Amino acid sequence: MKNLTDDDLILFFYGENENPGEIREQLAASPELQARFEALRRVLSAVDSLLVPERPPSYGAQVWARLQPRLAPERRSWWPSFAGLNWAWGGLAAAALLLLAAGFLAGRLWPRQPAGEGEEVQMASALSPAARERILSGTVATHLERSERLLVEVANSEPAGAELAAERAWAQDLLLANRIYRQSARQTGRSRLAAFLDELEPILLELAHTPAEPSAGEMDELRRRIDDNSLLFKMRVVSGRLERQATRSHSDPNKKLTL
Amino acid sequence: METDDATFVQRARAGDQDAFRELVERHGERLFRLAWRITGDERSAEDAVQEAFLRAYRSLDRFDDRSQFGTWLHRIAVNAALEIMRKQEKHRPHLESPLDGPDGAGDPLPSPDPGPDRIALSQEVERAVRSGLAGLSALERTAFVLRHFEGRSIAEICRELGLGQSAGKQAVFRAVKKLRRVLEPLLVRQEARP
């Protein structure tokens, strides 16, 4: 009969020992062993005192309320993806798209537009520089939130097959948008924002070109890169600042932007 | 008669979000209890619950109808909670056990001086349990929660966590030993009180 270890007693406590009869015999014959087992039993019984915080009866409904918006199919093409943005600024976002695509570039590069130039540029020039910057801040904040969601998904899951293909398409949309925003930020002299978008671009690029069947090592490397650069943390900070800038009162339109 | 999970799974697969909502409402609280025990933190547990349902929804096509939906969901939730724990462990290594000194010696708890009433004693024990669980690694804690609270056999734990039999066993053993180091001195002190 072998001497019983603590591990044997743990297995016995949980009913997983291969020879429970043998253990019972040894326990009955040895007060020292009984004391050891009793000490273990007391500890494991004490663990049962752990109280789980109670949830309200409506908990399931609360979970659903948070979950349901995330179940909507992701929009995969670039143009429709803008339709899914949170238009907190009413019609400003539509103007933002036009501004970003045409206004910032055309308007800034060629400030005096010849007669008959497109309506977009007229819209762009109709807005003050401060309004344009607020629009850019709001649009980039939303872009960063979406990018963060993608990175969190990649970092926390093992996507494969259709799911991975969807994430790749999503990354392609974000990559394209990121380039436009970076260019716009640079054009408007917001070099810190441009630098941050520059930092984000390589990881979006990598995600957009993930192989159809990446190896575990490749996925680990991606996750490591997301983690190593504290990218998620920076995105939350930058996105928060941009949101504040975007909603800044019109009474203070000339306050210098920090990003 | 109450409709079973399998019917709701079939409807959810066909795109009926209300059917999935029913599954969320049925299993949400159970998943929260599981995730909270693994993570020890309400916010992390909530995140794990969300993540588990999201993954389940996206993987409904891969769910084998011969299995129990609750069991499948449980497994997804365990892994979601474990991943969250591992991330936290990685980013906050200082949260690793304060009890993991080289010799495991010393009083691990902040030596409160509780009154003699039983409520205070049980609160003290609960605090010690939380402290002890917080000192476990993500894997040890998950394996222990599955064994102790969820009643899973070690073989089942190994399957859920993708571990070999020996690794699963050792994770549970280490967890129990660490908990003993925290709880035993307290329990002995309590017994010695008049």
Biggest interface goes to: A-B, 34 and 49 residues
Total strand segments of chain A = 0
* Structural class by sheet pairing and helices of chain A: mainly alpha
Q: Can you give the helix content of chain A as a percent range?
A: over 70%
Number of strands of chain B: 0
Low-confidence stretches of chain A: 74-95, 104-121
Major sheet of chain A, described briefly?
A: none
The overall number of domains of chain B is 2
Q: Averaging pLDDT over every residue of chain B, what do you get? A: 84
What would you say the CATH architecture of the largest domain in chain B is? Answer: Orthogonal Bundle
Structural class computed from helices and strand pairing of chain B: mainly alpha
Count of distinct structural domains of chain A: 2
Uncertain regions of chain B: pLDDT < 50 for 5+ in a row? Answer: 93-116
Quaternary structure state of the chains depicted = heterodimer
* N-to-C series of helices and strands of chain A: HHHHHHHHHHHH
How many strands, which pairing sense, and closed or not: the largest β-sheet of chain B? none
Distance N to C terminus of chain A:
74 Å
Write down the CATH topology of the largest domain in chain B. Answer: Arc Repressor Mutant, subunit A
Q: Count of DSSP helices of chain A?
A: 12
CA gyration radius of chain B, whole angstroms? 19 Å
